[in-house]
């Protein structure tokens, strides 16, 4: 009984905060950036599922440069990412986003936005 | 301070001595499309004297790279060019088979152009690597180094009876694919070769290997089979590529495929590492064994090309 009460209180608090915040703040508060590592000429994780509004951050861990390019021109390409360089895109809309490395096209990854 | 400089100069003299024509190296003789390796001895020298002309291939200078195992890729490129200038018989031109730069940056192109100019390389024919076309589909590369024959950047020329073709296979790459020539370039190639007699020696060069060398690492070209089908009727075809920073060869009928060493850093043999990145764990003194240039001589009275690999050690 006690547990149920606490659960309800949490739900109420969440609902209250969601109502009080603007939609933009609500999105940034509920999602934190998700990392994709580029290592050994591969994207890791190769397939990533996130909720709409999530910021995805690619970071190059190789000694070789890589370039993140959307296969269907669905989002803007990165510049050449040298070692330790990062690139981020916020995915606002649900869908499947296939991308690859412009200079090593056998490197392919997918972002599924729900 | 003077002492140190003198010692450096001595070291450099020693190094140049090691790189002389008669030094370490292998002479490759091609007879009817089949390569034979020979140590670079007096016989090699005699064959070099017989040659109607020679040219040198360099590749993958990666200006802008500054990590293990090579913190000074500009220096090793300069040393490669000094080796070319040290040849007894002056090569008539140079082919650079791509990846001039590491990141396609204007200052990297500037450095490369300056080094080539300082070394008085004369005529250099370039094709781009995938590192030279980042962000602008090669616009800057073609503006500075293109032959400007065709809008796509590919070109051909004749030199003393040998037909040379420079192909571009690093643009319009597809997700999950390898290098790509594309329909327009293939149509041009077919037309370019159509008028030639089958006994014309051909040299075809491009950055990525024009055969499926190791597709798992992207070492190949998706539509190379179509291009190679146009080459089969010729009696002597040499295909020169870069990209993989090591020597690999394959003979297919009258067509011999070669890949060149890099002047910057080596990459692992196919499948011997998790990924095809730079080999970082090379002892500082050993790097030169992995770098080098290729000297090709066209022998008078034959359709064979003698290919000499010279390592920088």
Measured as a percent range, the helix fraction of chain B is 25-40%
Run of helices and strands of chain A: HHEEEEEEEE
The CATH topology of the largest domain in chain A turns out to be Immunoglobulin-like
Strand content of chain A: 35-45%
Question: How confident is the prediction overall: mean pLDDT of chain A?
Answer: 82
Q: Could you explain the architecture of this structure?
A:
The complex is a heterodimer of chains A (114) and B (313). The N terminus of chain A is likely disordered. A four-stranded mixed beta sheet of chain A has the order 2-1-4-6, with no helix packed on it. Chain A is globular. Chain A folds into two domains: 29 residues; 83 residues, Immunoglobulin-like (Sandwich). Chain A contains two helices and eight strands, in the order H-H-E-E-E-E-E-E-E-E. The longest helix of chain A is centred in the first third of the chain and has 19 residues. Chain A has 114 residues and is an alpha/beta fold. The relative contact order of chain A is 0.20. Chain B is of the alpha/beta class and 313 residues long. Helix content of chain B is 25%, strand content 23%. In chain B, helix 4 links the parallel strand 4 and strand 5. In chain B, helix 3 packs parallel to helix 4 and helix 6 runs parallel beside helix 7. The longest helix of chain B has 17 residues. Chain B is globular and about 50 Å long. The chains are: A alpha/beta (114), B alpha/beta (313). At the A-B interface, strand 7 of A face loops of B.
